[in-house]
Amino acid sequence: MSASTDTPARPQRALPPLMRLSDAAAERLRALYATGEHGRLLRVSVKTKGCSGLSYDLSWADAPGPGDETVTDNGVTVLVDRKAALFLVGTVMDYEVRPLSAGFVFRNPNEKGRCGCGESFHV
């Protein structure tokens, strides 16, 4: 005798976006794409660096490579290194202007901690 164990398929949960761009980050990237980096794309990756182990790395690319994921948000496209995707799921890239500095910052829900200077993080 065999019992049928047909179970209904579980509904799939929607995955969070790989990465999102804040309005400020999108505005800054639009300005960069329109001027000195015209025709290029920003690539976001994660490198082994710093006292906490990982660091965000930004570079310019002429075109998506075979190891890139393309993310379009707020009308702007960035590339994400596929090897970094696991560390970046759900991250929001922002652009902050402070009295003595300005730059892209990352609000990453996967971060478990940062080093004292804020240059590196761990998950």
From TrEMBL:
Residue ranges annotated for the Core domain, each copy included: 20-119
Protein origin, superkingdom: Bacteria
Family statement drawn from the similarity comment of this UniProt entry: Belongs to the HesB/IscA family.
Name of the molecule in the record: Iron-sulfur cluster assembly accessory protein
